[in-house]
């Protein structure tokens, strides 16, 4: 690789790296602020347990066969 090609490659990769770094930092800041809710906007959520699943009225294999 010629020296002028190496310099242009180095500058291009530096720009790509800088863009990725600022994008990552911006995303972390944006989503970090989005997750922290103000104190007045708290909403009580119901405790929904997913341990038990209701049984279907008609077994699956009968639905498939008909």
UniProtKB/TrEMBL annotation:
InterPro entries: SMIM26 (IPR038831). It comes from the Eukaryota. Keywords: Membrane, Transmembrane, Transmembrane helix. The chain crosses the membrane at residues 12-31. PANTHER family: SMALL INTEGRAL MEMBRANE PROTEIN 26. This is Small integral membrane protein 26. It comes from Molossus molossus.
């Amino acid at each position: 690789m010629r020296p002028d090609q190496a310099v242009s490659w180095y500058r291009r990769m530096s720009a790509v790296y800088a863009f990725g770094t600022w994008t990552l930092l911006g995303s972390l800041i944006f989503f970090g602020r989005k997750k922290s809710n103000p104190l007045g906007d708290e909403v009580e959520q119901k405790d929904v347990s997913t341990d038990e699943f209701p049984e279907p009225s008609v077994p699956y294999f009968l639905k498939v066969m008909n």
